[in-house]
Amino acid sequence: MSQFLIADDHPLFREALKGALQSAFSDLEVLESDNFEATLELLKQYDELDILLLDLHMPGNDDLYGLIRIREDYPDLPIVVVSGSEEIQVVSKVMGYGAMGFIPKSSSSTEIADAISQILEGDTWLPTKLKDQVADLTGDEVGIATQIASLTPQQYKVLSYLHEGLLNKQIAYELHISEATVKAHITAIFRKLGVYNRTQAVLIASKLQLEPQTDSN
Known about the structure:
Elements: E1 2-7, H1 11-24, E2 28-33, H2 36-45, E3 51-54, H3 65-73, E4 79-83, H4 88-96, E5 101-104, H5 109-120, H6 128-131, H7 139-149, H8 153-163, H9 168-175, H10 179-193, H11 198-206
Parallel strand pairs: 1-2, 1-3, 3-4, 4-5
Helix pairs in contact: 1-5, 3-7, 8-10, 8-11, 9-10
C-alpha cells in the first residue's frame, strides 16, 4: 500500500486533493496534517511514506523553514510543494531547497496525478510554463539553508519574532516561556548562524521570506 501525506491547513483543499489522489492511485492511504508540528509527528510515525505534499504557508512552516528542515531530516523522502503562488522567485527557491516538484493549486486532478507519478519515478516536475524560468540558488543561499536546517522549530520561531522586531519580553509572552529561555535560544541561534547580533540574524531570516506573498492558502 502506498502512503501519501498531505500537509495543508485548509480542510476543504485537503479533502479535494485526497479525493483526486484516491481516484488516481489504487491501494493508497492518505494521511493529513494541518500544521508543521503535526507533520513532523506523522513523519516520525510513518517511516515508509512515499511522498509529502507540502503547503508553504501552513502554520509553523514559516515560509521555507519547513521545507529546509524536512529535507535535512528526511533526505530520501520526495517532497512536492503544492501552492497557490506561481511567482518564479518562490518556485526557484522551493526547487533549490530540495523539493522534487512544484504543483500550483490551480492544477487539474489529471495534472496533479501525472506530476506525482513522475516524481515517484524519481523525476522532478514543474509546470511547462515555469521550467525555463527557474533560476539556480546562489552559493550564499545554499549556505543559509544549511545553517537554518540546524535550528530547532522553537529556535526558528524566536528568529522569526526577531525578524518582526519583537523584544525579548514580547517573544517570551508570545511563546509562553521565560525571558531567560528566550536569551538562551538567541545565543544558540547566533552560534548556529555564525552571527554576533540581532541585525545580522534578521538579515539571514529575511532571505528566507517568500516575497511577494500572493498565496493566502
